[in-house]
Design a protein that fits this description.
The structure holds 2 protein chains of 2 kinds. By secondary structure, chain A is mainly alpha-helical. Chain A is built from 9 helices and no strands. In chain B, helix 3 packs antiparallel against helix 6. The chains are: A mainly alpha, B mainly alpha.
């Protein structure tokens, strides 16, 4: 158990001025990455982030220190974002048939002039955002949590409440598709 | 258009792991490992829009207001008010209620009405307060 987390939780529950601000500062990056990758629209993502932290504030007395505070907060963020997608009737994962036309979708969102350049790292970066946008919400969220936020598979499992095997399999597919998309964009004339 | 570089799917999982572990087994295609390394680096370097500056401070203010608002008390007061109003309205509904009860198999409509209206008032009030709080911070 993280003593910093414990002190912070105690301070927030005791309504110590500035304590909640410190808690938000410490975890806003994870929440933002998670929510933004799931939802994509920045205005909706900002509103959802606010909802996440309000829930954290209201439910903090229920936090039992059985996991890291970040994992607990991440789980709330994931639930809020998933519920938002369900309400907007957006799938977390697309059907198998929908996955085959991602190359075409990348072409649609890509600038044809960019596609003529070689995919070196800088070029890769310019395509990466577009390639990530073609992935379904769950896959791009898992990729971000693992590679950008450097959460372990078990931490991601705790946040998303998905089995570790499922996460590994989704990660494998997401990387495979990203590589394929980026390679396709490079090989275009 | 050239076809993308393909790897046997069975090997691909090992390639992904090797790229992550900075390991270069001789039996795996080096080009694929390099591609994955660049991919991982690109994911780490991808810039994401950030939260507006001062987000944490605004959340602190918002929760302070939340803590100061007598939400619970106010909600109970409104609930009590709704109950009283319905109780007062029931005598004038008396002539209608027996007809409803008879039509729907003896359902105690006065009780259903009382409970339903109270719950609805509490829920509506909660929503209104939540919206007011959001507007205050946006």
């Amino acid at each position: 158990m993280d003593t910093d987390d414990q002190e912070l939780v105690t301070a927030v529950l005791a309504r110590t001025p500035g304590a909640f601000e410190r808690l938000v500062c410490r975890h806003e990056k994870l929440v933002w990455h998670l929510v933004q990758r799931m939802v994509e629209r920045p205005d909706e993502a900002r509103e959802l982030c606010q909802e996440v932290f309000l829930r954290v504030f209201r439910q903090l007395h229920q936090f039992r220190h059985e996991s890291a505070l970040g994992t607990w907060i991440g789980r709330i963020a994931f639930r809020v974002a998933s519920r938002h997608l369900r309400r907007r009737r957006l799938p977390m994962l697309e059907s198998d048939s929908a996955g085959h036309d991602v190359g075409e979708r990348l072409e649609e969102v890509s600038d044809p002039v960019d596609l003529q350049h070689r995919v070196e790292l800088d070029d890769l970066l310019s395509h990466m955002a577009k390639a990530l946008a073609t992935l379904p919400p769950l896959l791009r969220t898992l990729i971000t949590l693992y590679h950008l936020d450097e959460l372990s598979i078990s931490e991601i499992a705790a946040v998303t409440e998905l089995p570790e095997g499922t996460i590994k399999s989704h990660l494998f597919r997401a990387r495979q598709r990203l590589r394929s998309l980026l390679e396709s964009s490079r090989s275009m004339p | 258009m050239n076809p993308p570089f393909r790897i046997d799917p069975d090997i691909e999982a090992r390639v992904q792991i090797a790229a992550e572990a900075l390991d270069d087994p001789a039996d795996l295609p080096a080009e694929a490992i390099t591609q994955y390394r660049r991919l991982y680096q690109a994911i780490r370097s991808t810039s994401m829009a950030s939260l507006p500056p001062g987000f944490a401070a605004r959340m602190e203010r918002l929760t302070r207001d939340h803590a100061e608002q007598p939400d619970g008390t106010l909600r109970w007061l409104c609930l009590g008010g709704a109950l009283l109003s319905i109780s007062a309205a029931i005598p004038s509904l008396r002539p209608i209620i027996p007809a409803w009860s008879a039509a729907f198999g003896g359902v105690p409509w006065d009780l259903v009405l009382l409970t339903g209206t109270s719950a609805l008032s509490a829920a509506l009030l909660g929503r209104l307060m939540e919206r007011a709080r959001r507007n205050k911070t946006s």
